Amino acid sequence: MAEVDTAFFPESKDMPKLSPIQVEGIPIIDLSPMTSQTVSDSSSIEGLVKEIGSACKEWGFFQVINHGVPLTLRQNIEKASKMFFSQTLEEKRKVSRDERCPMGYYDTEHTKNVRDWKEVFDFLAKDPTLVPLTSDEHDDRLTQWTNPSPPYPPHFKDILEEYVGEMKKLSFKLMELIALSLGLEANKFEEFFMKDETSSIRLNHYPPCPYPHLALGVGRHTDPGALTILAQDEVEGLEVKRRADDEWISVKPIPDAYIINLGDIVQVWSNDAYESVEHRVVVNSEKERFSFPFFFFPAHETEVRPLEELINGQSPSKYRPYKWGKYIVHRHNTNFKKQNVENIQIHHYKIA
Ligand SMILES: O=C(O)CCC(=O)C(=O)O
Ligand SMILES: [Fe+2]
Question: Fewer CB atoms < 10 Å away: N or C end of the chain?
């Protein structure tokens, strides 16, 4: 990424601050009541559900510790990811994403039409993954996305698959806690992910940037899925928009913790009880940064709409239903290159 292209520069209102606000920040939640082998008493689960509920309401973001994911798997993925990105551009481009399948290597992503200062490698949780062929709602044809097979580093695919297995387990547990916190049955969300889920893991590499005051690693956005489980390295960069006052708050790295954020689907399912909060990534001129978000996405045929249990006369549905598969295919088509129109966003489905 040697050339500097003005496509990297957002409008001045979205430009990063050089000294971001340092505060206590997003809640840290201990998941041990849920993960310990000897299932603890129901009062500690109740306490945990309350904590999750407040974190979801107040922040839409939290960090988890004692989550049960073995540290060695995270270390393996960090190491493999560094090895992959250290290759020449020519090698990396051999496993590039293309217009037919959006998985693999990619260094020209645009978030809301501004180019991100990063390179990524995307990998499906389920290979192959069934999705609609086009975003046209009248087109019933399906296609399959498949994973690339990078020759380097050795065992890259095994390392990714093992890690993804753990991310899925943790995602199901978190969705149970979120369901309970909304007063729903613990397994309320399970059915949407059991068949044909469309989840994926992304490896992000943010190289040092000579213009950290002008460009962003990822521009402000919300994540489209149900939830995201993010591992970040020790270099700060992620900023979350605080709901209380709309300030950008930097998320301090905690070793072996995972950052959880709700996506647009939970916002819709909960009929706005919970919000998918905006976040972005700032870059710096000295240090490179690596991060690994796992995006927990339901099956393509899922029709996303506010849950029956959460709507009533006083609180009518705030969203028109939409087909998840069509939405995600549309998003993938439009973030592939700079467009002249805004790509699809959840507010397009909001009932005014
Ligand atoms: O790198 C990070 O910390 C966050 C990345 C992110 O928000 C994303 O890829 O959706
Ligand atoms: Fe994100």
Answer: C
